[in-house]
Amino acid sequence: MKKVLWAVLVVVAVAMVFAFAGCNKQKGAAGSAGATGSAGKPLTITVAHNQTSMENPYVYGANKFKEVIEQLSGNTIAVITHHGTMGENESELVEKLDIGAVDIINASPGFMTAIGVPEVDTLSLMYLFNSFDHWAAALDGDFGNEMKSIIANKTGNRFRVLGYWSSSVRDYYGKKRVVTPADLKGVTLRGQSAQVMQDFWKACGAIPVSVAWGELYQALQQGVVDSAENDYTNFMLKEHHKTPNGHYVSETHHDYTTRLFMTSGAFWDKLTDQQKAWVTEASRIATEEERAVTIRMFEESKAKVIADGAEVTNFADVDIAAFKAIALPIQDRFAQQNNLSNLLTMVRSAQ
C-alpha cells in the first residue's frame, strides 16, 4: 500500500514540474517578443504634435507614419495619433514624452538648449539656409547625422531623433510693409524665444515680444503687438493675415525651420530589432510625406492669403542682402563663442 501511495505521489510531483515548466516557457515566449502587447496584443505607439488643423503638414506626416508601420508590421503595431489633442504647447508634449505618456512627438528643437544641448541653437540662426533644397541637403547629410548623435549623447539617450520635419519657411507679417531692416525700427514683433533670433530682430531695430501662439490672433487684432513672423500655412490656418496687424506680408524667408520627429531612449530601447527597423522605415517615409506637403502648401497657403486680401511683398522685392548682412555676423559670432564652427561649416558646405 505504501509503495502504491509513493508511486502516486511521484507521478503527481513529476506532472507538477512539467506544468510549472510549461507556464514558465509561455511567460518566456511572451517576454521575448520585446515591446509587444500582453497576451499577443499589438504594440501601441502614441504619436502627438501640437497642431489642431487637419490641413497642417504635421497631420499628414503622423498619419503616414501610422499607415506605413501598421502595414509593415502586419498590424502587430497599432498607432494612435493626437493632432493637438494632447496640447498646443510643445513643452507639454516634451514633458509627456519624457514621462512615457506619449511615445513619439514632433517639436521645435529649442528646448534642448536648457537641458545641455546648446548645439541645437545652430538651427535657430537666421538665414542659415538659402532654400528648401539647401535645408534638406544639410539635414539629410553630415550636419543632420552629427546633430542626431549630439542629441542622443548629450541627453544620455533621453531623446532620439527619428526624422527632421519642416514647418516651412518663415516670413514677416504685420501692420506695415517691410522691405529693408530699417522698416522694422520700433516695431514690436512676436517671434521665437531663441536668443540668436532675438539678437537678429533687435539688430534690425525691432522689439521682440513674447505672446503665446494661441493668443496671437487676439494680440494682432487688438494691436497688442505690431507684427509677427511665421510660415504661410501656420498663420493662414489661424487667420492672422485677416487682422489689422497681420495685413502686410513680406517674404523675408529668414528661417527655413527644422522640427524634430523624435522618441525617447527609454521607449526605443524596449523595441526589438525588427520593431526598430519598422519604426525607422515608417519615420523615413513619414518625413518625406510631411516635407512634400509642407512645400506644396507653401504655394497653396500663399494663394489663400492673397485671396483673403492680404498684401504680399514677394521675396524678389525684399532687400534680402541687407537682412543677410545682419544675420551672417551673428552666425559667425555664435559659432565662435560656442565652439561650433564645424557645424556651421557643414551647413554652409551643403549648399
Write the layout of secondary structure elements.
Layout: H1 2-31, E1 43-49, H2 57-72, E2 77-83, H3 90-99, E3 104-107, H4 132-139, H5 142-154, E4 159-165, E5 169-174, E6 188-190, H6 195-203, E7 207-209, H7 216-221, E8 227-230, H8 232-237, E9 248-256, E10 259-264, H9 265-270, H10 273-307, E11 311-313, H11 320-337, H12 341-349
Task: Write up what this structure looks like.
By secondary structure, the protein is α/β, with parallel strands linked by helices. The chain folds into 2 domains: 38-166 and 258-297, D-Maltodextrin-Binding Protein, domain 2, CATH 3.40.190; 169-256 and 301-349, Bacterial extracellular solute-binding protein, family 7 (D-Maltodextrin-Binding Protein, domain 2, 3-Layer(aba) Sandwich). Helices cover 47% and strands 17% of the residues. It is built from 12 helices and 11 strands. The protein has helices at 2-31, 57-72, 90-99, 132-139, 142-154, 195-203, 216-221, 232-237, 265-270, 273-307, 320-337, 341-349, and strands at residues 43-49, 77-83, 104-107, 159-165, 169-174, 188-190, 207-209, 227-230, 248-256, 259-264, 311-313. The strands form 2 sheets. The protein has a 6-stranded mixed sheet with strand order 7-6-8-5-9-11. α2 (57-72) packs antiparallel against α10 and α11 runs antiparallel to α12. It is globular, with a radius of gyration of 26 Å. The termini are far apart. The relative contact order is 0.15. Residues 1-34 have low confidence and may be disordered.
